[in-house]
Amino acid sequence: MQSHGLTYRASRWLLIALVSATVALAGCAGHSKRKDDKLAKLSPDQIYGQARKDLRAGNYAGAVKQYETLEARYPFSEQAKQGHLDLLYAYYKNHATESAIDQADQFIRENPAHPRVDYAYYIKGLVYFESGATWFERAFKADLTKRPPQEARKAVQAFQTLLQQFPRSPYAADARQRLVYLRNRLADYDLSVARFYMKRGAYVGAANRARDIIESYDGAPAVPYALQITAEAYRRLGLDDLALVVDNVLKENTLPDTPAQAAKKQRWWRLWN
């Protein structure tokens, strides 16, 4: 009998818990439905106003929801058109990388002559620029020179398009600064590949990769190191005359800090904070 009593009480408490959970879920669903019904009654001006308010307050997730609601319910309204670039910025600040890129590409495709299309290129470049390293890698000073720089190349493309098509854009100066960093980043990656080839004894591959650095990234800190690798690779290949020519060029170039040394002196991701 005692055993049956315990089973009955346990079942009773389980039933109460299930009923409570069901009521709570129903309450949440009802609250969400009431909130959606309230949004449905708002005019385009009201939704746009709330979205702008959230954006200015730094509530980027809230701003994204408002702008998406505006586009879904009033896609052809003037407010929706005005909100396209704001939504792009909200995606970017909310770290919604894919949505930000899609929004930028859509805006550029649909509004090639828009007076602010340069902004879309700029934000697109920023998204790729900032996706080059995670916060974890930044915090622990990971060596990014060995990571394939796909995002860096895409950022370069976006910033270069901005500068070519809109050289007087208010975003041009910042884009140029970022391009300097990106060029150095790409040169450093190629340098790490050339060094890898040297360690493996692939001297032709090392010389070719080093030559690409010299030709493509003139002035980058990696260039003198690329000259060193080129000279050493030529010697290993028995091309001493060519190695001597490179040595003479190298004498005119001072070796800068290595990428690792430069990273210790300056954290690039804080340059634009």
Explain what this protein looks like in three dimensions.
- It is built from 13 helices and no strands.
- The protein is mainly alpha-helical.
- Helix 2 (44-56) runs antiparallel to helix 3 and helix 11 (222-236) packs antiparallel against helix 12 (240-250).
- It is elongated.
Short description:
The chain has helices at 2-40, 44-56, 60-73, 78-93, 97-110, 117-130, 135-139, 150-165, 172-200, 203-216, 222-236, 240-250, 259-265.
Highlighted features:
273 residues, mainly alpha, 76% helix
What's the arrangement of secondary structure elements?
Elements: H1 2-40, H2 44-56, H3 60-73, H4 78-93, H5 97-110, H6 117-130, H7 135-139, H8 150-165, H9 172-200, H10 203-216, H11 222-236, H12 240-250, H13 259-265
Helix pairs in contact: 2-3, 2-4, 3-4, 4-5, 4-6, 5-6, 6-8, 8-9, 9-10, 9-11, 10-11, 11-12
Estimated share of beta-strand residues: under 5%
Helix content: over 70%
Q: Average the pLDDT over all residues and give the rounded result.
A: 82
Largest pleated sheet: none
- The tally of strands reads 0
